[in-house]
Design brief:
Largest sheet: 2 strands, antiparallel
Distance between the termini: 33 Å
Helix content: over 70%
Number of domains: 2
Strand order of the largest sheet: 1-2
Strand content: under 5%
Shape: globular
Structural class: mainly alpha
Amino acid sequence: MLAFFLVAWPVDLFRREKTAKTFFTLAQFFLLAVICCTILFYNKSVFPRYWQNTPLTTLFKTFVYLLSWAWFYLSSKWFLTKNRPSFKFYAICFMLLFGFDILASASSLLTLGLAVPFVCAGCYGLIRRHWDIDRVREVSAAYVWTALFFCLLLWGGIGIIYNQTGSFEYAAVKSFFAAEPGGTVSLAGVLLILAPLMFMMALVPFHAWFMAFVSVGVLPVCGFMTLIPPLIYICTLVNLMRGCLPSFIETTAPFLTIFAVLSLTVGALSANRENNLRRLFAFLGIYCQGFALTGLIGFSGDDIMAAFAYIVVAILSFTGIYTVFLSLKRRSEYLSELETVSGFSRGRPYISAALLVFMLSLTGLAPTLGFFGCLSVISGLAENDAWGKIALLLVSQLFVANACLQVIRTLFFATSDNKFDRTDKAIYICLFINVIVIVAALINPAWLLRDALVILGGLS
């Protein structure tokens, strides 16, 4: 990933003729190289004291890199349409992918303490990727101060744990608390470490920055922040709790449950009040994070498998939805308000049908693929007799379905004379591939997650 900068930066400086496709081509080449190296060296690390590659982290990172490749390709279409330079966008995204790589594989609290602010700096850089800086100045400034506050909490928590154990290494901390259960001070340190992760995941009540970000950010940036980070943050949380703090899984469960329940409730209810498509689906993204966290809280092998299956299916749906967003254009302007896309199905029936598939999957309705993702989480909760959580999940799904029905009514049944720009063939190709993956996996869901199930099934 670092090699990308050594090549892309001179190209940006010295090449006269450069387009968005130029930097996508470079990003594509280096990202494919990263995927190959990640799979090839899945269990090897240069500095194992600070970060370690394992089959678990390799699984999550491989999915993230594949999603990044797809979104980089789609983003190049946006930059070409808007005739905007794309070097800084791809450079910051590679910077974030590098930070995500370290964050997911961290084996030391010291590494975690450095990776989190590095990732936050990358997110700040993406927020600033707008040609009208005045539109994002207030949001970016608020994000900086908020991120700094949570980084201070993280460093304070790490300091408490180090003072208790005398070590930053995950394995040493795990052994210490296995032999000597931590008290109130240790629990406070753990909660301070978890708080920044909840902030980065945009879980309620720490979601305001993400909603503000989606409101003012350009489409490639909003898509990247919606599609790519969730898997990495879940991987980081799993790696931290199982590899470093397993003694605190039971005591932190009530706190994580609060974040999960708030995210489910606020995400589902707020989506029903939104008329802006990006904000509507951003709230549904927060809802999906809460849904996955609800099933993950026990951090057993089955819990991790269920949460992984659910979030992968949800991200596939969001990838399709954001691909559709790239086709919502009129006079070269990308549309986001619900009323501006009324009657879209009359002019673009195939794209509208694909969007319908993605939304039905997102709501978890049978027999869509999303149903199996939801079922994996609910089955795990049923085995633990968590009937209250199951009831909450089922009720929240009704509100999610209602929010999606609002979009369906506008696209398919509203009368309008709106005319939309011609859609790039690449959009149709990407939508076709996405729908095929969802339909094929619907026949046998294990096809999509076969190797993942083998790896996650080995977790005790």
